[in-house]
Amino acid sequence: HDYPTLETTITATFGFVIEKLAAVLPNKTPSGSPSVVVALGNNDVVPDYFFDIAKLPSLVILEEASVMLKNGVLEADEARQFKRCGYYLRAFSPTFRVIVLHTLLWSHRIQPPIPAGEEDPCGQFLFLTIELETARRANAKVIIMSHIPPMSDVWKVLSNRDFTSVSEDMYWKPVYQERFNWLMTEFSDIVTVQLYGHTHLFYFQALSEGVPFFIVPAISPLFGNAPSYFIAQLDDESLSLKSLTQRYFDEKWTTGVRVEDLFGDLTDTASLRASAMRLVTDDALWAKYVKLRAGGVGGEKRFPGGECDSWCRKVIACNMVSNVWDDIRACVEAKEKEPSRKLLIIIPVVVIAVALLILGVGILVVYRRRQLRYMEGVRDT
């Protein structure tokens, strides 16, 4: 992280990681494609977040392509595509493809900033659209894979204890996010899932229209998380995501929970959205999510400032159902106005207690009156 200059070479840093990935066995799929798919992040350019689209090809990208080719995690035709701006297509079979995007290009933090009015930095949207159309014609399924996700910087919002602005709080620029949202809705019949990284912590997002995404946790424990990853299971026919099983390191590698056991069918947008909003009030589900989010373990660094309070939970839940800044903020504000779960429990209990008290008093009054009448009758006789 945060290499300020090229004094430490790409080969010595990025190359070390690629060598380890290349050692994963089997390193080839049955079709002969490399088994490892690599997506560039903001820390894979030097300095961090630096990518000048006015000066292409990027020397950093060229060196990374060379390292990936040398280690067999990138094929020659993929490398030609990758050298342009860091995005490429991996076709595992005629019916299964992974589109790898370089979403730093759509980020607020890219340096130098993308000029205002630039509709398609590096032609990445054109590439994405063509590949999605090609996949549809081939009746193929697609997984979208990248690093920086199309959501807000939840950690920053929680650290600030408030929403600041679109440019400060959101990872992507709205103009690119809106266009991407449209593509995911338009091609939701062939895109089965989106996978991202960047946050180091597990999240998911399910918009009312489009394709759900999941953030794969980090191996590096920089945010109080334990090193962790997921084992994914795809449906044999539809290639949709059936299961995500957590594996985390806590003195030894351990199998954690399955995401679908917490949030339901990973392809069911409505179910995922409902489960996300349950995190606001369902303490049992929240406790399981916190453990999943942090890589299978707890710790004070799980959230900025320590534990996550009611407002914090609302921010996290609302980010799981929207990626529009105004909508996320409105969602949190609306949830803040709702009575708390404890209050919803206390009020009925109090009402029932008062009703029982009134009933008890009424019974005592009736009993006392009958007793007095009986005593008066005895005296009269």
UniProtKB/TrEMBL annotation:
Keywords assigned by UniProt, alphabetized: Glycoprotein, Hydrolase, Membrane, Transmembrane, Transmembrane helix
Transmembrane regions: 343-367
InterPro entries in UniProt: Metallo-depent_PP-like (IPR029052)
GO MF annotation terms: hydrolase activity
The keyword Transmembrane is annotated on this UniProt entry: yes
Protein name, as recorded: Calcineurin-like phosphoesterase domain-containing protein
